[in-house]
Write a structure and sequence with these properties.
Layout lengths: L8 E3 L3 E3 L2 E3 L14 E5 L8 E6 L4 E7 L2 E6 L4 E6 L4 E5 L4 E5 L6 E6 L8 E2 L2 H9 L1
Antiparallel strand pairs: 1-9, 2-3, 4-11, 5-10, 5-12, 6-9, 6-11, 7-8, 7-10
Bound molecules: dTDP-4-keto-6-deoxyglucose.
The site of dTDP-4-keto-6-deoxyglucose has 12 residues, from strand 4, strand 5, strand 6 and strand 11.
């Protein structure tokens, strides 16, 4: 099982020019899994809290494509807060980690690259079930 310390900030490659910057992620090059799904959170009201669940198998790269927000990661034993505020950084969330999200800045966009297609069966939405899973 992974711990919160396994969930690291990854520096993404940046191609600079006078006209701006571009960051590129390609399967198995700059990202260690096949991207099966892309989604993004936006128009998140200030003071809104999201997340409050874990995933059994899903692995993710989370990028602050615009603005900033905070992830709280929890492996059932330790917690870690990660502040994301730049599109050249990705938070790699490993499977089996509980997450909450807060402090979305106005206009922020939370871009997620995910290793699996959507299935509700991969969610742990009850914290007690999550703790039982982690302690089993
Ligand atoms: C995570 C954070 C960063 C779908 O139908 N398909 C999808 O691909 C997704 C992601 C969601 N949904 C539906 C399921 C729920 O009825 O949209 C609703 C909200 O989804 P969820 O509770 O997952 O939303 P968040 O913002 O709490 O969490 C999402 C991701 O699901 C989660 O993996 O880490 O963004």
């Amino acid at each position: 099982m992974y711990s919160v310390e396994d969930c690291k900030i990854i520096d993404l490659p940046v191609i600079h020019s006078e006209q701006g910057k571009i960051s590129v992620l390609q399967n198995h090059e700059t990202i260690p899994f096949d991207i099966k799904r892309v989604y993004y959170l936006y128009d998140v009201p200030m003071n809104s809290e999201r997340g409050g669940h874990g995933h059994y198998e899903l692995e993710q790269y989370v990028i602050a494509a615009s603005g900033s927000f905070t992830f709280i990661l929890d492996d059932g034993h330790s917690k870690k807060e990660v502040f994301l505020n730049h599109p050249n950084k990705a938070l790699h969330i490993k499977p089996g980690i509980w997450r909450e999200m807060k402090d979305f800045s106005s206009g922020s966009v939370c871009l997620v690259l995910a290793s699996m297609e959507y299935t509700e069966e991969d969610y742990m939405r009850d914290y007690n079930d999550f703790k039982k899973y982690r302690n089993a």
